[in-house]
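Supplementary Note 3. Input sequence used for the single-chain structure prediction.
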Amino acid sequence: MTAVLSTLEQPGSSSQATSYVQIGGAMLNWMKVATIKAAPVFGAVVDSFDSSSALTLAGVERVVALDDAVAVVADSYWNAKKGLDAVDIRWAQHENSSIDQAAIFEQFESAIDAALASDEIEPEINVGDANAALAQASSILDVTYRTPYLAHACMEPMNATASVVGDTCEIWVGSQNPLGAKHAVAEALGIPAENIIIHNYLMGGGFGRRSFYDTIVQAAKISQQAGSPIKLVWSREEDMQHDFYRPAFSSRFQAQIDSKGQPVAWRNLFVNKGEPHEAPHIPYAIPNVWIGSVEKPMPIPTGPWRSVDHSQHAFFTESMIDELAYAAKQDPLQFRRALLQDKPRHLAIINRLEEMSNWQQALPDGHGRGIAIHECFGSIVGQVADVSVQDGKVRVHRVTCVADPGFAMSPDGYRAQMESGILYGMTAALSGSIDIEGGAVKQSNFHDYRSVRMDTSPVIEVDIFNSGAPTGGAGEPGTPPIAPAITNAIYAAIGVRVRELPIAKQGFDVA
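The predicted structure, written as discrete structure tokens, is reproduced below.
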């Protein structure tokens, strides 16, 4: 049995174009549109609701209750939204309502302190004896970095179309995991997986968000209850406040340099080990390295975000190596070069970056260049950011990027991915932050979750270095280096070290 979506004139109307689902050649039902509101506090459920006012509004046909959300079904999105605004919803109290962002970081860092004091953590990397080296050091650099939760902020808010008829279901959606969605819907509806058809389409942005099935399952449940095909469209506010966010992190470093300016020891302990396991690893030749993690879970839904944990750890490690360079009174590029002598691919990128970025060229007061290099998904990407800081306003003027994917089979496509990864990472670095207040997300739309736009985008120059190594990725590796490149440039410009993102929350204007 095959279904197709069509658009024709509704019977009895001379002009109104309406979508319907056609199954087996017969028009089953006119498709309805739904929108939804979930409990603001994570983990909470619906206590009660009054839909009487909503059902009096034009176009509103039904109010559907799910465990943790209420949806309104109508003849258009606008009428569904007006109806949802008119529903009086009471949410059950939940213990998560006591959670806020400051307390989350406090708990992260208390867990790190306790783990360091206990000395019972099994490290992931343990080369030499960093603990002994640090214990004998006359002075060490001891700093903590933070990154916030981040939304995916896809241009297309979450949506899905579903038609449930008896024990069959068809879904029209753009999904990063359609097979997983198929089984999730089967479990939610209690029907066999072989009776579910997923029609997968192009996505208006994914970045990891559309690997989850929440919207798809909601659409199927609403269709099942409403008895008609349903196009579920989330509002931007719902999209922002019910994401699966990039995890917040705290990461503490303790490091030592000797009298000759050479790094001797590197110890790094962070919260909540994620994926992939190599994200916090460093390429630098430091004789004593200890890297480990401690678990401190939070009831905030999290998931993959472009480059996964590499975007946080690149900021941490490339900021810390920059701090060591300045502590050693050495040029940050030259400092990295000296520690990468046994890494020919990294060295090639450093050398090309020095040339392309005009690294040695003097800059005016209030301007700085920052460098970062990071390897992920088989590609090595280095970036230099040219930044100015004038009267507290940060502006990124130029980004030079050198990438080694092994071999770029589509150079234009690879450059485009580097450019988009840089811009996506710039939003995270400059202004991106999801803050938790009372167990709920504070941000709601692009006015308080600002993105880089055309008027603040820098000039981006990308050079591809085909080293002949096994072919690596393109979509993710461009994102991790940009945040540390920018914050390292801020330090070069005005001597202020940014250890917590976003930059906008550290007293800078990034508009």
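The two ends are 53 Å apart (CA to CA). Residues 164 and 224 are 5 Å apart (CA to CA).
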